[in-house]
Amino acid sequence: MKRKHTVAFIAVCAGLSLAAACGSGSGGSSGSTSGSSASFNAGMTSVVNASNHKGGVMKLALTNTGDSTDPGNTYYAFNWDFSRLYARPLLTYAPQPGAAGLKLVPDLATSLGQVTDNGLTWTYHIRSGLKFEDGSPITTKDVKYAIERSTAYAPDVLPNGPTYFKQYLADPSYQGAYKDKTPDKMGLTSVDTPNDTTIVFHLSQPFSEFDYLATLPQTAPVPPDKDTGANYQTHPISSGPYMFKSFNPNTGFTLVRNPNWNAASDPTVKQLADEIDVAYNVSAADVDSRQFTGQLSMDLDGRGVATAGRARILGNPKLKAQSDNPTTGFLAYFALDKQVAPLDNVNCRKAILDGADHTSLQTAMGGPIGGGDIATTMLPPNDTGYVKSDVYGFLQNPHGNVTKAKQDLAACGKPNGFTMNVSVRSDRPAEVSAGQALQASLSKVGIKLQIDQFPSGQYYTNFAGAPAYLKSHNIGIAITGWGADWPSGFGFLSQVVDGRSIKPAGNTNIQMTNDPQINAMLDAAAKNSDANARTKIYTQIDQKIMANAEILPIVYEKALLYRNPNVTNVFVDQAYGQFNYAVMGLAN
Amino acid sequence: MITFIIRRLISAVLMLIVVSMATFAVFFLVPRLAGQTTEQLAAQYVGRNPTPEVLHAAIVKFGLDKPVYLQYWEFLKTIVAGENYDTGTSLAHCPPPCFGYSFHNQQPVWPQMLAALPVTASLAIGAAVLWLVAGIGIGVLSALRRGSWFDRAAMSAALAGVSLPVFFTALLSLALFRDTIPLFPDAGTYTPLTENPAKWFESLVLPWVTLAFLYAALYARLTRAGMLETMNEDFIRTARAKGLRERRVVVKHGLRATLTPIVTIFGLDIGLLIGGAVLTETAFSLPGLGRFAIGAIGDQDLPEILGVTMLAGFFVVFANLIVDILYAVIDPRVRY
Amino acid sequence: MAAPLEPLGDPVGSPVEVQPTAGVGAKAIQGRSLGQIAWMRLKRDRWAMAGGIVIIVLVVLAIASVFLQKAGLLDIATPHQNLINVNTDAPTGFFGGISLAHPLGIDPQFGRDMLSRILVGAQYSLLVAFSATVLSVIIGTVMGVIAGYFGGWVDTVINWLMNVFLAFPLLLFAVALTGVVQSIPSGSAFGLSGNTLRVAVLVFVIGFFNWPYIGRIIRGQTLSLREREFVDASRSVGARSFYVLWHELLPNLVGPILVYSTLLIPTNILFEAALDFLGVGLRLPTPSWGGLLADAVNNQYYSIDPEYVLVPGLAIFISVMAFNLLGDGLRDALDPRSR
């Protein structure tokens, strides 16, 4: 969905051009750019323009407004990355390029979580002497309060974020901070704060990947007396190197240095630029043009340049040397809804997988560079559990296998094909194109598709995510995309193949996978503290889904990101599949 | 005169009420006619976890469960009396005319529109100055030198001007004068006038010229036609017969009579534009009312849509009112 | 806002004065009707005639394309991936992939035949523009005639109604309405579905909100005609209101209706293009000119594949220009004073 993710780009640390790449993460003190660093994909394996030069105004832009600047109320990947500048979570990912960047490191906390009680209790200690922007001390009560007020418990006020805490903590009936009647609003019994630097989480079931939840911006401290609820987004009280100076819900916001932030307490971020401006609602074409002319330091969205920008970069060796092409950890796919006949028959689903023209789908998504590599599995290569496999031979028959598809149709009892609707998001040109590409390729085997376009704001709530709607409107194929909320097979699979996660609205298990075996495997993985054993389970689930032809994978998404030569410390943060915004600065 | 103005004022207010009712009806009824339930309407504003409880809370919060007339009444009340809004920690009050709180970003609508208004006003007024000077000047010259090389060239250009979609000329001008020849590198990055007048000017030159090109073409055609008609009138012949100099005849008598109908059209045009130059703002990424409106429609944010439609309607009605009154003052034939 | 409504301001400025009695023709040796005189004048206007010829060609092409499409000679949907550069999306061939098989090239990303797309696009663009114009003209004429002829409170009410319509931010309304109705999926609404539904919505939205412009002009014309002797004469011999309206007034309104219809069509072509630019249009892969141009502009194809921008841009420009030229010529021909 909105959350984009991770890359396990097989990057080897040794032998990189910059010492900073795999070492301490801090570069030299000068702002000089070494020529070797400015090459295509340099930011994938090294820190480009490593520098500690201070000053300048960082100008960032978004084509929309994002979901919210409130750390408790956001599900956008760029926000999870960017908000670390003003809202420090308990843990975060190591600020290093390559696979090293997938490692969890303490941020607000002093170490990773300590597990006791057979995996049911997780304890964190936070650094002492931390202060908010107004100079008041940060305590674990502020962290507990932040979780109480987040989307997990108060979705009526802050609706946009994830709800994992409610799912895994022992007190799921808690009504959220805003309805909390206890005097100090500390009513969430599953979180204890025995002293100002200790916080203890009590889980309802063992969950071996809980540390990943501690990286969510929802764990960034919020002082209860400064919380303004729905208005907190206009000025989140900073615990990081920058703080809000101004905010306009339609045009953007400005961050300035936070005088009460102490660099020594916070090795994962840097305070280099004097000011950071974020402009909202800039047209996509404009964002790209302004990136190339240098008026914009960077595109904040991290989805990469649009079609014209891509052609410009690829046609100009100088621009190409200033760009990176990471996989985003996102899988684009068509979910095949098993409740819409004749897709209840596995052979009819196979006909779609075999008949699809994978190259034209890839082109529709933006080609090998702008779109990504043709996908043959459900798990993207960066999540744990991915094992390369291509049971349908997508790569041998990139234009589809019409003969095989016709055999499938015959086996399904529909030798002349069938008619069906496919849904795409109207405001996403790549999806609209992919719909047309599928329509064109399947018409060759006799499957007639009609394209239905829906606004993305309602796509999951009312259309593709509403199983009854799909069924009643004969929409058997729905395009969707998914990225793990954290870089593991569990982070990817739990929301899309768990039969118990099917919902009447806001459903993300669109293909309606409800296999008791898969459900049991997910439960077993959550409990298992052996990471290797978990990984094996994820692989098995992936293979089951593909064997059963429940989805038609399109591409493992890639983004073509432009690196402004004036921006320092640029590298792809593999945990987020985009640049790390927390350490960037300006050369002048 | 006073009664005339009062009558016009009452009519203007009535007109605004009808505009608001129609807008409300369209945005309230059409989605329901299209088969969306109250739950589905609420579902767009509750993020990705639309559990029944959350949906119910949203429906109550936005008042979607109330009958249509009550919802409309609430809307009118917010304009006159403001509205209270539960932020979770306190009751926020937005003073009138507040137009309610956005469903989407939970911020009061009125300040958001106020922030967008200077952008659109800068665009519209700057362009208006350009097109009035260029359009009327070219129109008069064309009329006076009817059939000349200048007349033909100007009128061909004018015809081309009204035959091109404005978003096309906008993108062409950006491609040419920003990306290829960077004359205006900051075009498309709006800077408020109060912050940096030079940058404000630079960022708006291309939008002004693009928009003015379209209108200048139109006004040149109008002026030319009007001027030709006027110059054939008897009073012009009389003026010439009196021995007035040609320049005086043209400016004092001809132009004056020609401009009267143009004032009417100008009033309507500028009123419509200040309400949101949707296409130009979209093409140039200007954060004005037009873009605000398009965003509101995209989010199906009813309070924002109502607010911006009302504001746009207000400008048209207000401009009409001014034109009517001006007319009554300058043209003695108008009965009131 | 501006673009779509623009040229509509024009008519208000110089209303047509149609001479009800053929004054000029009466002096000639053989009497000529008003229509004949206008036709003679029009024939002498080379630009207007050129516009007229272009329009005829356009209409013939659009109609022919319906049959060509049915015969399978036009293919708007089949991609030619092998002719596309996968990394830039641009056609690999000369200037947008022009070849014998694809005389106007192919579109970027898919490689679909542009000639087919532009011809089929003409069907929809002209269909929407014509139908919307007819709708506006019908409503506008009926309302204008009623207001002008009956006067009094009827006139006041209709006049006020027209002002209300003019106060609507038309483009916003159009985008919102079309958007809402278009999100009705494959199913149907109001007994229509698919592209038929979309065309119907576009026609309704563009046509319904535009009628006051025509209405105002017709009302003005009716007001002046009402006081003419021939209407008085008709009434004095006991003719009913309907008879007077139908047999005396309407024939005299044909001129201005014709002129403003011709001038309204190009406005509506631009209006449809604007709606496409703002993201509401036909069901894919069905093309319209506005949709093609909007696609090129929104994806910044001008830098990769200028031909893709040029073809729909020229199509719109030429047809809008042709209608404007013909409209201007018609106005001049029907109104000797405005030359």
What does this structure look like?
- The complex is a heterotrimer of chains A (588), B (336) and C (339).
- Chain A has 588 residues and is an alpha+beta fold.
- Chain A is built from 18 helices and 23 strands.
- In chain A, 25% of the residues lie in helices and 18% in strands.
- In chain A, helix 9 runs antiparallel to helix 12 and helix 10 packs antiparallel against helix 13.
- Chain A is globular.
- The N terminus of chain A is likely disordered.
- With 336 residues, chain B is an all-alpha fold.
- Chain B is built from 13 helices and 2 strands; from the N terminus they run ααααββααααααααα.
- In chain B, strands 1-2 form a two-stranded antiparallel sheet.
- The radius of gyration of chain B is 24 Å and the shape is globular.
- The mean pLDDT of chain B is 82.
- Chain C is an all-alpha fold and 339 residues long.
- The N terminus of chain C is likely disordered.
- At the B-C interface, helix 1, helix 6, helix 7, helix 8 and helix 10 of B face helix 1, helix 7, helix 8, helix 12 and helix 13 of C.
Give a quick rundown of the structure.
The complex is a heterotrimer of chains A (588), B (336) and C (339). Chain A has 18 helices and 23 strands. Chain A is of the alpha+beta class.
Report the strand count of chain C.
Answer: 2
Main sheet overview of chain B: 2 strands, antiparallel
Give the strand order, joined by hyphens, for the main sheet of chain C.
1-2
**pLDDT averaged residue by residue of chain B:** 82
Tell me, what's the shape of chain B?
A: globular
Helix content of chain C: over 70%
Using only CA atoms, what is the Rg of chain B?
A: 24 Å
Indicate the structural class of chain B.
Answer: mainly alpha
Order of strands, main sheet of chain B, comes to 1-2
**How large is the count of helical segments of chain B?**
13
Distance between the termini of chain B: 7 Å
- Counted beta strands of chain B: 2
Which quaternary structure do these chains form? heterotrimer
